[in-house]
Amino acid sequence: MKCLALLDVADLNEEKGHEISGVRSMVGYPNTVKSLEVKNKLIGVILMKMTFRWYGEGNDSIPLKYIKQIPNTSGLMGVIDQYAAGEVWELDVIKDYVKHVNEAGLEVEVIESVNVHEDIKLGLPTRDKYIENYKETIRNLAACGIKVIVYNFMPVFDWLRTDLAKVIEEDGSNSLYYDEKELEGMTPRMLVENTVKNSGGFTLPGWEPERLAELETVLELYKDVDEAKLLENYKYFLEGVIPTCEEVGIKLGVHPDDPAWPVFGIPRIAHSKEQFDKIVKLVDSPANGLCLCTGSLGSSPDNDIPTIIRHFGEMGRISAAHVRNVKYLGYRKFREASHFSTDGDLDMFEIMKALYETSPDVYVRPDHGRMIWDEKGRAGYGLFDRALGIAYLNGIWESLEKMDKKNK
């Protein structure tokens, strides 16, 4: 981490209850500062950390040494996908994963896809067992230096697309694509089979076989769950795990619904500013944060992404950010685009500016790149386009830093 300026400790004394013993010990600190004036003084003191999602040795086509070669990439938003939802992540497995990443010269301070068991979302009597397992996983991750856990509360399905490799006619690349009309006449089982068939042999986050093995049974149970009940069950989960997060110094970051609307009549409660306002109020703690995914929220043109970032950034609730671009093609129809703003419909400059001004210590990663230059790999998670995305986002951040320094 680079220090661009010194901050008068007296400024920090305005914010009671915080002791500053070193710059990176302040991870998350600006996201707890209530005074916008003090927060603005922190800009330039703590830099965001640019990261890259990686699925683990033998489960990712991209070697760690390639990630290390991407400029200004501090480390990973890591994934350990050998565990089914509800299982305890074992301490030794996490230690080995972190050690392996560190030996490649990279950090891993964020872990993604610690999946919440469906029994918790459904509010079944068995949920307490799975909440206890989740708490043990939180403790084990914290013991290995993890600071942020990204998860979601989407029932049944994780992210959802109707085509994993839609060819983009303008340049011949391909990307993830969604068209609501293509779901007409398709059952959930048909969608699952189609997605797995076109995955190229790679596992897909949120589409784990064991999670979908009892699809019909789970769908039947959700017939008795509406948005209000799902939110109630969510509160029960947060009340169970947030005290553990506070105890060990970990922040949760809930990922938005993707796409940003209900599918197959199943309730979804995390895809708008209003819904996230409800979520952060369920348990009022800095540990109850968001993973602000611009592409998931941005799949709906009703969501003003920079405004949403500023709203929750000023509240101190953005634990991590996935930054990507989408191209609107019609009503509930879109495809993933390159990170360059005009290739899609999201303003990457304003998005990064909002993060810079309200969440300067945020963990960021590029998301869902296209497949370009004949690369073969996990849909949305190739090397080349995501590396280009990092370069583009880094360039915006550096410009913001220099503009800010010049104005001061």
Produce the secondary structure layout.
Elements: H1 9-13, H2 36-42, E1 49-54, H3 64-68, E2 75-79, H4 91-103, E3 107-112, H5 118-122, H6 127-143, E4 148-151, E5 163-167, E6 174-179, H7 188-197, H8 209-212, H9 215-221, H10 227-248, E7 251-254, H11 273-282, E8 288-293, H12 294-298, H13 305-315, E9 318-323, E10 325-330, E11 333-337, H14 348-358, E12 363-366, H15 384-407
Parallel strand pairs: 1-2, 1-12, 2-3, 3-4, 4-7, 7-8, 8-9, 9-12
Antiparallel strand pairs: 5-6, 6-11, 10-11
Mean pLDDT over all positions: 88
- Quick one: biggest sheet? 8 strands, parallel, barrel
Order of helices and strands: HHEHEHEHHEEEHHHHEHEHHEEEHEH
Q: How does the helix and strand content classify structurally?
A: alpha/beta
CATH topology: TIM Barrel
Shape: globular
Strand content: 15-25%
Runs with pLDDT <50, length 5+? Answer: 1-45
Can you tell me the CATH superfamily?
Divalent-metal-dependent TIM barrel enzymes
Total beta-strand segments: 12
Question: Counting H and I runs of at least 4 residues, what is the number of helices?
Answer: 15
End-to-end Cα distance: 22 Å
Q: Any guess at the CATH architecture?
A: Alpha-Beta Barrel
Return the CATH class.
Alpha Beta
Radius of gyration: 20 Å
State the helical fraction: 25-40%
How are the strands ordered across the major sheet? Answer: 1-2-3-4-7-8-9-12
How many domains comprise the coordinates?
Answer: 1
